[in-house]
């Protein structure tokens, strides 16, 4: 299966650091636990948008499909965990998404536009990381991560398209604002390894 990831690479401002990839390969149980958490959160975000924006039929349809796909991915990840004897422990969230959302405006439609832009960025980064990780993992897990690329790249495009329509104007300045923030978070060292963390710091 070949997926053109050039739109995602052209969108994001940096690649995942090699140090993060090295840490991910060494900490696969933690990688899978946090990946499962990310899928749950992605579904929850989509469902929250469905509740808040019942007037937007395009958003309702795309977020409904997205939520179903993310929950299916969650089921697949926990199946891998169970098969590999990985206990599903409670772990703290990465700072990544919370830091990105600090920049979201509090008034509408700005709040919706920014929330959708942040969703697009998170999906794009997830897709980029799956593609980077796949060749470094065992074939079973690597093939699974490659199988996620098509839906994750579509989620990225759906979020971005919905943001443009919700704004009704050029959103490039807002996209630039969040992409610069995302670049800093991806390149900045993190004390704890997570799916969306930066490269490991000395405490990792």
Describe the structure.
The protein has one domain (18-87, 97-187): Ferritin. The chain is 70% helix and 0% strand. It is built from nine helices and no strands.
Key attributes of the depicted protein:
single chain, 204 residues, mainly alpha, Ferritin, globular
- Which ranges are low-confidence, i.e. pLDDT below 50, for 5 or more consecutive residues? none
CATH superfamily: Ferritin, core subunit, four-helix bundle
From the alpha carbons, calculate the radius of gyration and give it in angstroms: 16 Å
Percentage of β-strand residues: under 5%
Number of domains: 1
Q: Structural class, from helix and strand content?
A: mainly alpha
| Oligomeric state as shown | single chain
What is the CATH domain class? Mainly Alpha
Task: Based on Cα principal axes, name the global outline.
Answer: globular
Quote the distance from N terminus to C terminus. Answer: 35 Å
Count of individual beta strands: 0
The name of the CATH architecture is Up-down Bundle
Overall pLDDT confidence: 96
How do the helices and strands follow one another from N- to C-terminus?
HHHHHHHHH
Summarize the SSE layout with pairings:
Elements: H1 6-11, H2 18-26, H3 28-52, H4 57-83, H5 95-101, H6 110-133, H7 139-147, H8 149-167, H9 172-187
Helix pairs in contact: 3-4, 4-8, 5-9, 6-8, 6-9
């Amino acid at each position: 299966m070949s997926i053109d990831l050039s739109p995602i690479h052209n969108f994001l401002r940096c690649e995942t650091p090699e140090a993060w990839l090295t840490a991910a390969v060494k900490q696969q149980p933690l990688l899978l636990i946090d990946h499962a958490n990310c899928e749950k959160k992605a579904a929850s975000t989509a469902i929250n948008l469905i509740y808040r924006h019942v007037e937007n039929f395009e958003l309702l349809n795309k977020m409904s499909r997205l939520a179903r796909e993310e929950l299916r991915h969650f089921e697949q990840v926990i199946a891998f965990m169970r098969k590999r004897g990985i206990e599903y422990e409670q772990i703290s969230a990465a700072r990544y998404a919370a830091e990105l959302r600090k920049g979201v405006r509090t008034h509408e439609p700005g709040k919706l536009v920014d929330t959708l832009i942040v969703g697009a960025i998170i999906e794009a980064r997830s897709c980029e990381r799956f593609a980077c990780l796949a060749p470094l993992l065992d074939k079973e897990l690597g093939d699974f991560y490659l199988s996620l690329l098509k839906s994750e790249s579509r989620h990225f495009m759906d979020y971005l398209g919905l943001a443009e329509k919700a704004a009704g104007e050029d959103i490039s300045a807002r996209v630039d604002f969040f992409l610069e923030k995302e670049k800093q978070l991806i390149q900045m060292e993190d004390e704890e390894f997570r799916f969306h963390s930066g490269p490991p710091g000395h405490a990792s």
